[in-house]
Design brief:
The chain is mainly β and 145 residues long. It has 1 helix and 12 strands; from the N terminus they run ββαββββββββββ. The strands form 4 sheets. Strands 7, 8, 10, 11 and 12 form a 5-stranded antiparallel sheet that branches. A hairpin with a 4-residue loop joins strand 7 and strand 8.
């Protein structure tokens, strides 16, 4: 994944979506199947009350996005690493214009793909309907400077 320059819009930092995981859009994607895709974000600028400040290390991290989930329902994000370890995060699907059903965007602590090796596999579980998204590969092999 390559990060394009962020666009500052007022006091909100908007990052363009730069990569869609093929598995999320091609495998079993229909009106009733939750879908996820990955983009990146950087913990580098936070703006509020007209003031912006540099924070974090500036390293690109993985943002997990999804749609076709039950609105106002918890979404469990399951991460399985190739070494057998696993972790999970929980977010909530909301309605947003331009997206189908419930959608979310979760800024994970996973670092962006440095070497092109997929060593993390991500799935999302719609708790309300007990439906799963397709698994999407990512990389967490990078290190912060």
């Amino acid at each position: 994944m390559k990060l394009l320059a962020p666009l500052a819009i007022g006091a909100v930092l908007a990052l363009p979506q730069v990569a869609v995981a093929p598995a999320a859009t091609a495998q079993n994607h229909g009106p009733d199947v939750p879908a996820i895709w990955l983009t990146t974000y950087r913990q580098s600028i936070v703006c509020g009350d007209g003031v912006c400040a540099s924070v974090g290390d500036g390293v690109a991290r993985v943002r997990i996005n999804g749609d076709h989930f039950t609105v106002n329902s918890p979404v469990d994000l399951a991460l399985r690493r190739s070494d057998g370890t696993a972790s999970s995060f929980t977010t909530e699907a909301r309605t947003l214009p331009g997206f189908v059903a419930g959608t979310f965007s979760y800024e994970s602590p996973l670092l962006d793909d440095c070497d092109g090796t997929a060593d993390v596999y991500i799935r999302a579980h719609d708790v309300a309907s007990n439906r799963w998204s397709a698994e999407v590969p990512a990389s967490d092999a990078c290190t912060t400077p």
